[in-house]
Amino acid sequence: MKFWKRAMLSATVLMGTTILAACGNGAEGSSSDKTNISMFLSKVEYKKEMEAFVEKFEEKNPDINIDLTFVGGGEDSESTLKAKFSSGEAPTIFMAAGLEQFVNYKQYAADVSDTESIKNAIPSTIEFMKLDDGGIGAVPMSMEIYSYLYNKNIFKEAGIDADAIKTQSDLTEAVKKIDEQKDTLGLDAVFAFPAKETWSTGMHGGGIFIAPEFDYDPTTAVSAPNFNFEYADQMKYYVDVQNDYGVQPTVSMDYSTQIDDKFIGEKVAIVMQGSWVVPTLMEADEEWAQDNIGILPIPVEGTPESYLDGGCLNYYIVNKESGEKEVEAAKEFLDYMNISEDGKKNTVDSFMFIPAYKGYEEYSSDVNLINEYTNYVNDGAYRQAVFNATNVDWLKNSIGTGIQKYITGEATWDEVVSDVKDAWKPAEQ
Description:
By secondary structure, the chain is an alpha/beta fold.
């Protein structure tokens, strides 16, 4: 029997771009009196919001200075982080994408069991983040949920009822109907499929079709000796429908063009992305994002209908080699961000995160999309992601690159499937 991850949570989401920020404001004493810590973050979507929150923290804590570095949104954050460790510039706090990256960096992880963040974390978010001595080595960032997002006005004009789309066949029928009317609707295509972004197609997209083979259990995926690609046919449909009815050439479609130009510009009806894009949509046009964007579950034959996908996908690790003062300052900041009243309000209102912590019952979101994501989670219509318990390079270079080869005619789908299976190696060996 398949394991369907169910969680009861509250609301709100993420995001940002590459930046260096910080400096304490209104500090008393010389800069030598300060404890300097650095953060390396790969969620570029909340750059501005994190900058503002760090500034507020520094005002309340003039003895602590925080330098922020964001690398992501198409840039290779993993390689950059490895380079920082190799060059002796390792950050005090850095982001790890789930169990696979936690395993890779566990040797640097400080025990954060004594923090208020861990004491208040939803248990399912930390049960896999154990150090060898039994301590907890990572602080949850947030819950992240992904699906198709669709333009309600376009669907209405095309005569499409999104609630009636339950299966792959239902989706095909709706897509064909929109495609037939795309000129009248002013569309370039039905989809914007970001095949250039192997992190999107390999990690998030591919992850949907990896998870059911491992019963939606990260601990099974992280050390599985083999991957049989049992849901390869379903993934082929997922790729084909977006590629065949997508803005061409899909292999050149990047994340920014997909969201900023095609979706926000109302040149396509559907995109696959997650809760992390909500701040971008709200910033572009709040009224439009509130009233006109809906969530459409990705149909996968052989799994429950109308389920979304996701989980706690990212964590903060405190580098124990940073020094005792730095480690304590890092813990203080994380607790302020996750547990304090200021932090809770910021998490919901500014970061637009879906909280990974208890005690947020009084902090609800004003953002319709966030509340809709949260309702799916609270109703149990939610499948636990496991892609972040597998090898990131395998996801991007085998699945993501394999999709590129398939859509450009360099490989058949059967060849992609064979290559993906052959390239599998567990993240933990």
